[in-house]
C-alpha cells in the first residue's frame, strides 16, 4: 500500500474518496466469500501472518496489542476473583497423558512429540542432523493442555484442607496438531490461559466452574461487545476428562456459532489419576475436587468476525489498541500548521488525562487519505481530522468506525464528547451484535424446518432432541450441525425430538460451528 | 510449616522469638553452603518448585508475581523506546538453524527436537505410543532463541526504507537442553523477552544495541536495586552470530558474577542468511542491519542472590509483589479487636490510595508469630504490627526487612512515613549492594595475585590481558575465571598481560560466573 501514489488531497471530501479508492482494492466482500474476507482482513489489517512452520502463525503487533488488552482485562478479573498466576513446564512426559483414561481417549493424540535433545553437525556436510545418541528415554509431549503436568505437581502441594482451595491460572502457549488450520481460529500453536483449581468439596468446585463461566461471559459482553449464550455441553461435546463442560457460545456474522470459552467441572477424575488427596478437618482423607477453564487467541478471531465489515476491522473501544487517532490536514501555510498542531497537542493531552488511548499521526510521509484508509482498515473506533478551515470554524470532523457516521463537533468540550462517543460506540456495537444474534435464534419443531433454516438462514436453532448421543451424532453426520449447548436456566417444556420423534423435556441450541 | 503448633504469642517480643524459632529450622546459612542456601530459599519462600520434567521448573505464584512485576516494568520501558510486541512460532525448522554459520556453530546443538506429530493407543495395551506413521518430513526444534524464525519472517515485511526500523519484542518461553540446571539460573525451559530489530544503517543498529543495554542497566539498578557493570564481551564470549555483544554484569553475595542481560549488534549476518534486503531512498538495494537483546527469568535468581539473607528473601519495594503487610495482634477483647481492625482498614485504604501494594492479614488460622516468619521468608519489605496497647499509645510497630530494624511510629501520618520508608529501603538496598560490589573489584597486576584474589576474595578482578582468545581460554581452563566484559568507556592504560606478560592497552574484568 505504501507504494501507491495518490493525488495530494487537501480536504476531507477528497480524502474520503481516496480512502474508498484504496479500500476497494483491499478486501474481498463478506457477501462474496466470507472465509476469504476473514483471511484478507486478518492479513491486511496487520493482525497476523503465516509462518514458515505448518499451522503456526505469527501474531503481528496490531494483533498482539489486541490480545494484550484482552489478557490484561481477563487477568485483572481472575485476580479479583482470588486467583494467582503460575507457570508450569511446556513439556509433559508421554506416560502422564495415559493416566486419566477419558483424557487420553478424547484428547492426547494429535500432539507434537519431542524424541531427541541434541543436534550435531552432519558428517556429510551441509547443516545439522538429529544426534541419534541423544534419544530421550521417555518421549515428551508439547502441552496440548496442562491438566496432567499440573495435577502431578498439585500432589506435592496439597496435604490438608488448609492448603485448599488452590486457585491458579497460567498464561501459556499450547500446541495441538490440527490438520486444517485457520488464522486465530484454529492454529497448531496458540496462546491461552488455563485456570486449574483444587477444592475441598464438590459444591465449591461447581461454584468455581460457574463463577469462571460468568467471568468469561462478562468479558465477552462488556469488553468484546459480543453477546454470548451461557450453557452446558452435551456428553459428546464435553472436554475429555470433565464431568461437566460449561461454555459461552457466540454467533458470527455468517450465521456460524463459535465456542468462545469453556469452564470444566472435573470432579475427582484428575485427583484420582494423580493421587491427590487431602485430610479434612476431621482428619479424614479424600480426593480433591477440580476445575479447569480457558480462553485463547481464538477470541481475536471471534472479535474480528463478530463486528468487522467490508472496509476492515471494527474494534470495540474497550479493547482497541488505539481508541482515537487524530489526523491533521495541513495546507501549504506554515502558520496554520502550527496553529493546528498546538490545538491537537492540547487535545491529545486532554484525552490522555481521561485515560483514552490516542495517537496524533502527523507523519508527513503519508497523506491524510492514506491514513484514513489505514485506520479504517485497522478498526480504530474514532478518527478526528482537523484542517485550517475547521480550526477557523472552531470544529473538528469526527468519524466513528462502527456506523461510519461523520459529524462536525465543536472544539469546545471535544474531549468530553469523544469520551461519550467511545462509550456510545461500545454500547452500539453490543446492541447491533445482540440484535443480529437474537434474530438468528430460530425455534423449529420439524426436521424439514431444521434443515431449511440451517441451509437458508443459519444461526442458532432451538429444537427438541431426545437426549441420546446417537441422535446427536446422526444429526451432525447429516447436517454438520452440532448441539452448541443446553442453555443455563433453560425453559423446561415437553416436546418431540426433531429427528426421532422421541419425547424431550427441553430445547437445545444447534448450529454449524467454527 | 503449617503443622507446627506454637504457643499463643500475644505480644511482639514473643512473636519475634517465635519467628526466629521457625526461621532457624528453615534455611541453610549462606556461610555454610551458599548453593544449598539458594536452593532452600527458592523452594521454601515459594518462588519455584521442581517438576516431573528433567531440568524444567514450576514457577510458583510468589515467583511468578515477581516476574510479572519485572515484565510489566520492562515492557513499559520497551514501549517507551518505541517497540511493539509480537509473537512468533515456538517451533523452528531444523534447516533454519544452519543458515547462519556462526549461529549454528555456537548455539544450536542442545535443543529439544520434535520428530513426530501424533500418538496412538499402544496395540499391546497400557497407554500410548508414538505413531511411527506420523513422522515429520523435517524435524522441528523448540526455539532456543528466535533469530532464525524471525528473520525468515522479516524477509516478507521489509522491502523499502519506509518499512524500517522494525522495532519488535517478544515475550516467550525458550528451551536449551542444559546438562546441569539450577532453579531460575539455568533451566531447560525459561521465560524471557527477546527484542529483534531491523535498521537501515549500521549506526542506527549500534545505537539501538546501546540504547537497550542502557534500558537493562537502568532496570537492574533502579528496580532490582542491583548495580551492574556495562560492558562488551570478548570474541570468545560473544553471542553466536553477533558482531558485538554488550552486557550488564552483576555481582552476587558469594563473589560470583552473573550476566544479567545482553544486547547484540548482529551486523548484516542474519539479513544475509535470510536474504532480507531493502531499497533505500536512492532505490539502491542493501541488506538490513540487525540487533537482538534479551533478559530472562534468570533475573529472579539474580535478585534473590543479590539481596537475600539467612532469614529469607529480601525484595526491593519497586518489584515486591506485596510492599507492606499488616498483622493485627488481637487479644481476647472483642471491642479492642474491632478498634484495631477499624484503624487498620483505614490505613490500608490510605496506603492503596498512594499506589502501595498492601495486604492486611487478619486470618485467624495463623498466629502472628507464624505470619511474621512467613513474611520475613517471603521478603516483604515492610511489616506493620498493631495490638491493643499500641493503639492506646497511638503507635504501630514497623519492621523493615532489609535492615531488620523495628521502630515504633506514630499512627498520625503513618501512610506518608511508610511511603518514605519504602523509598528508603529501595535506596538502601542499592547502596548496600553497590558498596559490596565496589569492595569486590580488585586490581591485580600479577598472576599470583590473580589466583590468590580469585580464591580468597572472589568478585571482579581488573587485570591486563593480551587480547588473544588463546590466553583467555588458558586462564579459563586453569582458574574457571572468564572475562566478564570490557567495561564501556574503559580507561586506556599501558600494561602487561597477567598470564603472558605481553603488552596490553586496557584492563578487563575477570570473575567466576554463574
Describe this structure in words.
Two copies of one chain form a homodimer. The first copy, chain A, has 514 residues and is an alpha+beta fold. In chain A, 36% of the residues lie in helices and 27% in strands. In chain A, the strands form six sheets. In chain A, strands 3, 9, 10, 11, 12, 13, 16, 22, 23, 24, 25 and 26 form a twelve-stranded mixed sheet that branches. Chains A and B meet through strand 2, helix 3, strand 3, strand 4 and helix 4 of A and strand 2, helix 3, strand 3, strand 4 and helix 4 of B. Strand 5 (113-116) of chain A pairs antiparallel with strand 5 (113-116) of chain B.
Helix content range of chain A: 25-40%
Rg over C-alpha atoms of chain A, rounded to the nearest angstrom: 26 Å
- What kind of oligomer do you see? homodimer
User: Strand tally of chain A, please?
Assistant: 26
How much of the residues of chain A is beta strand, in percent?
A: 25-35%
- CATH homologous superfamily of the largest domain in chain A? Bira Bifunctional Protein, Domain 2
Report the CATH architecture of the largest domain in chain A: 2-Layer Sandwich
Mean pLDDT of chain A: 93
The end-to-end span of chain A amounts to 31 Å
Short description:
The structure is a homodimer of 514-residue chains. Chain A has 15 helices and 26 strands. With 514 residues, chain A is of the alpha+beta class.
Amino acid at each position: 500500500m505504501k507504494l501507491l501514489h495518490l493525488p495530494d488531497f487537501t480536504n476531507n471530501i477528497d480524502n474520503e474518496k481516496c480512502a474508498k479508492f484504496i479500500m476497494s482494492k483491499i478486501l474481498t466482500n463478506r457477501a462474496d466469500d466470507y472465509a476469504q474476507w476473514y483471511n484478507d482482513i486478518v492479513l491486511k489489517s496487520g493482525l497476523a501472518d503465516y509462518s514458515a512452520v505448518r499451522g503456526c502463525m505469527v501474531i503481528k503487533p496490531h494483533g498482539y496489542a489486541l490480545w494484550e488488552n484482552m489478557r490484561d482485562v481477563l487477568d485483572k478479573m481472575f485476580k479479583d476473583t482470588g486467583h494467582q498466576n503460575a507457570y508450569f513446564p511446556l513439556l509433559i512426559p508421554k506416560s502422564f497423558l495415559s493416566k486419566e483414561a477419558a483424557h487420553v481417549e478424547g484428547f492426547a493424540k494429535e500432539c507434537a512429540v519431542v524424541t531427541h535433545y541434541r543436534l550435531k553437525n552432519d558428517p556429510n556436510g551441509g547443516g545439522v542432523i538429529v544426534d541419534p545418541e541423544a534419544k530421550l528415554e521417555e518421549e515428551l509431549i508439547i502441552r496440548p493442555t496442562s491438566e496432567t503436568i499440573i495435577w502431578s505437581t498439585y500432589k506435592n502441594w496439597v496435604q490438608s484442607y488448609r492448603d485448599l482451595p488452590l486457585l491458579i491460572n497460567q498464561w501459556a502457549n499450547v500446541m495441538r496438531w490440527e490438520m486444517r488450520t485457520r488464522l486465530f481460529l484454529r492454529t497448531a500453536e496458540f496462546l491461552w490461559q488455563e485456570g486449574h483449581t483444587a477444592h475441598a468439596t464438590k459444591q465449591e468446585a461447581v461454584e468455581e466452574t460457574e463463577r469462571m463461566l460468568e467471568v468469561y461471559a462478562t468479558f465477552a459482553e462488556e469488553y468484546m461487545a459480543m453477546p454470548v449464550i451461557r450453557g452446558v455441553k452435551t456428553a459428546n461435546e464435553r472436554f475429555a476428562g470433565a464431568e461437566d463442560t460449561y461454555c459461552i457460545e457466540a454467533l458470527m456474522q455468517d450465521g456460524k456459532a463459535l465456542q468462545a470459552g469453556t469452564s470444566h467441572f472435573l470432579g475427582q477424575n484428575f485427583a484420582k489419576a494423580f493421587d491427590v488427596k487431602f485430610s479434612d478437618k476431621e482428619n479424614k482423607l479424600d480426593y480433591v475436587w477440580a476445575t479447569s477453564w480457558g480462553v485463547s487467541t481464538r477470541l481475536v478471531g471471534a472479535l474480528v468476525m463478530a463486528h468487522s465489515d467490508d472496509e476492515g476491522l471494527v474494534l470495540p473501544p474497550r479493547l482497541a489498541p488505539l481508541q482515537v487517532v487524530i489526523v491533521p490536514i495541513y495546507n501549504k501555510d506554515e502558520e496554520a500548521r502550527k496553529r493546528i498542531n498546538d490545538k491537537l497537542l492540547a487535545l491529545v493531552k486532554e484525552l490522555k488525562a481521561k485515560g483514552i488511548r490516542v495517537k496524533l499521526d502527523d507523519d508527513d510521509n503519508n497523506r491524510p487519505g492514506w491514513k484514513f484508509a489505514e485506520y479504517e482498515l485497522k478498526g480504530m473506533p474514532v478518527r478526528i481530522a482537523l484542517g485550517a478551515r475547521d480550526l477557523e470554524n472552531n470544529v473538528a470532523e469526527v468519524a466513528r468506525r462502527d456506523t461510519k457516521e461523520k459529524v462536525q463537533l465543536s472544539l469546545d468540550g471535544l474531549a468530553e464528547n469523544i469520551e461519550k462517543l467511545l462509550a456510545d460506540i461500545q454500547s452500539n456495537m453490543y446492541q447491533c451484535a445482540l440484535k443480529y444474534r437474537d434474530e438468528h435464534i430460530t425455534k423449529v419443531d420439524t426436521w424439514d424446518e431444521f434443515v431449511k433454516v440451517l441451509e437458508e438462514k443459519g444461526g442458532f436453532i432451538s429444537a427438541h432432541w431426545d437426549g441420546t448421543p446417537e441422535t446427536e451424532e446422526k444429526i451432525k453426520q447429516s447436517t454438520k450441525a452440532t448441539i452448541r449447548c443446553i442453555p443455563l436456566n433453560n425453559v423446561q417444556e415437553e416436546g418431540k425430538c426433531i429427528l426421532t420423534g422421541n419425547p424431550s423435556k427441553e430445547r437445545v441450541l444447534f448450529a454449524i460451528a467454527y
